[in-house]
Design brief:
The complex is a heterodimer. Chain A is an all-alpha fold. Chain A contains 15 helices and no strands. In chain A, helix 5 runs parallel beside helix 7 (about 130-140) and helix 6 (about 105-125) runs antiparallel to helix 7 (about 130-140). Chain B is built from four helices and six strands. Classes of the chains: A mainly alpha, B alpha+beta. The interface of A and B includes residues 168, 169, 228, 240 and 261 of A.
C-alpha cells in the first residue's frame, strides 16, 4: 500500500465542503459568546434542514421539555444560548456530511460513536466543572479526520480498515502502517484550515495521545468511554489504549464515572434519533 | 394483531376495540382503537351491545423468563473482554475495564 503524500492530504483538506457559516462561527467563537441569541436564532431559521434538526434535538428527551418546542425563537428562549449553541453545532455537523462510500467504513456507526463521545465529553466536563459546550463540540469533531480520509481517499482507507481487521489492531496503528498518516493528524489539519482556536486544534490532533492540556484530556477519556460503553453497535468494537497520565490529571472517581455512564446511555439513543431520523 | 369476540361481562378495563362498533343504521358508536374503560362498557350495555371484538394483549414482558444470572454475567464478561482485548493483550492498566463489569451487572462498590 502506497502512503498518502502530505500534499494530497493537504489538498483534500482544502477541498472539504464548508460547514454552514453559522456553525463555523459557533465553533470559532467557542469560549467567548460573541454570537448572540437573536443572531443565532435568525441564522438557524434561514436554513430549513438545520432548523429541523435543531427542533428535533430540542424536543428530544435530552432536554426533557414539558411542552413542544415549535420555533427556533422558542428553542432559544427555552434552551438558553449555551445549549442552543451545542445543539446547532451538532445539527450542523450531522447535516454537512453525506454518507461515505468506502468499503468497511460504517457511516452510521461513525456517527453513533461521535455522538457518544460528545455526550461523554459533556458529562465529564460537567463533573469537572469545565466548559461543557467546548467539550461537547470537541467530542463532535474529534474523529473528523476519519470522515475526511474515508471521503477523500476511499480506496486507501478501505485498505487501512482491512489491515485493522486482519491485525485486529487499533485504527491509528493501521492508518500509520498503510496511509503514512492518521485521522488525528488529518483532523488537526482540518481544524487549522477552518481557523479553530489552537486549543481546539491541539485537542483534535492529540485525542489519542493527549499533550498536557485540559481539553485534550477530556476528549481522550471521553473517546475511551464511548468505545467502552459499546454504543456504536459494531461487532468488532475495540477500546483504544488509555493515557494514564490524562486519566490521573482528570482525577475522576468511580461514582462520578458510573453517573456519567448512566447519563450518556440514557441520552444517546434520543440524540441519534433526533439527528439522523 | 390477534383479536377475539367476547361478551362485555368480564372484559378487562382498558381492552382495545379491534373493529368499529356500529348501530343498525350504520352510524359509528365507537371507533376501532377505542379503549374500553368501565364507563364506556357501561354505556355500551345501556345501548344493548352484548359482544365486542377486542385486540388480544401482547404477552406480558414478565411472562418471558428472565435470563439466568450466571448466563447473563458470562455474556457481559465475554463482551467486555472482547472490547478490552487490546488492553488485555498489552497487560496495561485500564480503569474502565475494572469499573464496567460492576456497572453492567448492577453491582456497586
Amino acid at each position: 500500500m502506497i502512503p498518502l503524500s502530505p500534499e494530497a492530504v493537504l489538498a483534500s483538506v482544502r477541498d472539504l465542503p464548508p460547514l454552514p457559516a453559522v456553525v463555523m462561527e459557533l465553533i470559532q467563537s467557542l469560549g467567548n459568546e460573541v454570537v448572540g441569541a437573536d443572531y443565532l436564532a435568525q441564522e438557524i431559521a434561514r436554513d430549513p434542514a438545520l432548523s429541523a434538526k435543531v427542533l428535533r434535538l430540542a424536543n428530544s428527551s435530552l432536554y426533557g421539555m414539558s411542552r413542544q418546542v415549535t420555533s427556533i425563537s422558542d428553542a432559544t428562549a427555552i434552551l438558553g444560548l449555551r445549549s442552543l449553541r451545542s445543539v446547532a453545532t451538532a445539527a450542523g455537523l450531522a447535516g454537512s456530511f453525506a454518507p461515505v462510500h468506502c468499503t468497511g467504513f460504517d457511516f452510521k456507526a461513525f456517527w453513533r460513536h461521535t455522538i457518544a463521545t460528545a455526550l461523554c465529553a459533556r458529562a465529564l466536563a460537567q463533573a469537572l466543572r469545565a466548559n461543557e459546550e467546548t467539550a461537547f463540540t470537541l467530542g463532535l469533531l474529534h474523529d473528523i479526520g476519519r470522515l475526511a480520509l474515508a471521503s477523500n481517499f476511499p480506496e486507501a482507507t478501505a485498505g487501512a480498515l482491512q489491515y485493522q481487521q486482519a491485525q485486529d489492531c487499533h485504527g491509528l496503528e493501521a492508518e500509520r502502517a498503510t496511509l503514512g498518516t492518521d485521522h488525528c493528524a488529518v483532523g488537526g489539519l482540518i481544524a487549522e484550515h477552518w481557523h479553530f482556536a489552537p486549543a481546539i486544534v491541539a485537542a483534535i490532533a492529540g485525542h489519542h495521545e493527549p499533550p498536557m492540556t485540559g481539553a485534550a484530556d477530556v476528549v481522550h477519556v471521553a473517546d475511551n468511554m464511548a468505545h467502552a460503553l459499546d454504543l456504536s453497535l459494531l461487532e468488532h468494537e475495540l477500546v483504544p489504549p488509555l493515557s494514564m497520565s490524562a486519566w490521573m490529571r482528570l482525577g475522576l472517581d468511580e461514582a462520578q464515572c458510573r453517573k456519567i455512564f448512566q447519563q450518556v446511555e440514557t441520552e444517546h439513543e434520543a440524540v441519534c434519533a433526533a439527528l439522523f431520523m | 394483531m390477534n383479536t377475539v369476540m367476547t361478551t362485555l361481562d368480564g372484559l378487562p378495563d382498558g381492552a382495545v376495540l379491534a373493529e368499529a362498533l356500529c348501530e343498525s343504521s350504520g352510524q359509528v358508536l365507537l371507533a376501532a382503537g377505542s379503549v374500553l374503560t368501565g364507563p364506556v362498557i357501561a354505556s355500551l350495555r345501556r345501548r344493548g351491545v352484548e359482544q365486542v371484538k377486542v385486540n388480544l394483549p401482547e404477552p406480558a414482558a414478565d411472562l418471558v423468563p428472565p435470563e439466568d444470572p450466571q448466563v447473563r454475567r458470562e455474556r457481559i464478561e465475554r463482551r467486555l473482554q472482547h472490547l478490552f482485548r487490546l488492553t488485555l493483550r498489552s497487560g496495561q492498566i485500564h480503569p474502565l475495564m475494572h469499573m464496567l463489569p460492576a456497572y453492567r451487572l448492577g453491582e456497586h462498590a
